[in-house]
Amino acid sequence: MGATFIVNKLDLKRMLSNLGLGESSIEGLLLQLDKMHRHVNAVTFAGLLTKAGLKQQDVTNVLRRIGIDDVTITDLFNTLDEEKINSTFGKIVELRIE
Question: How many domains does the chain fold into?
Fold first, then answer.
């Protein structure tokens, strides 16, 4: 099982506001988190931040402030990219050229 990171709702709200996210986007994100009972995996959380309007660098800064290391953050974005590809093009298959 992976590590657990906890962020205070007010601190998260402050971070997002400082990054220029609008009040309605912040409230929408917090509402989504509440619907998930405020437990979400890091990939989904990064995806929610991106959908809320944050650039990848800003998402990275939020994740770092929560305490997630750079290697894990890179893995998160790689997983997000794979999920986007899978949802757009279907399943990726292995291609072997011999």
Answer: 1
Residue 25 within any structural domain of the chain: yes
Exposure on the CB side of residue 49, measured as CA atoms within 13 A: 27
17: tokens are 């506001």
pLDDT confidence of residue 39: 80
Percent of the chain with pLDDT over 70: 84
Indicate the pTM of the whole model.
0.78
Distance CA 12, CA 65 (A): 10
- H/E segment holding residue 69: none
Q: Please give the residue range of the domain that contains residue 64.
A: 9-83
AA letter at 52: A
In terms of Cβ atoms closer than 10 Å to its own Cβ (0-12, 13-18, 19+), residue 46 is buried
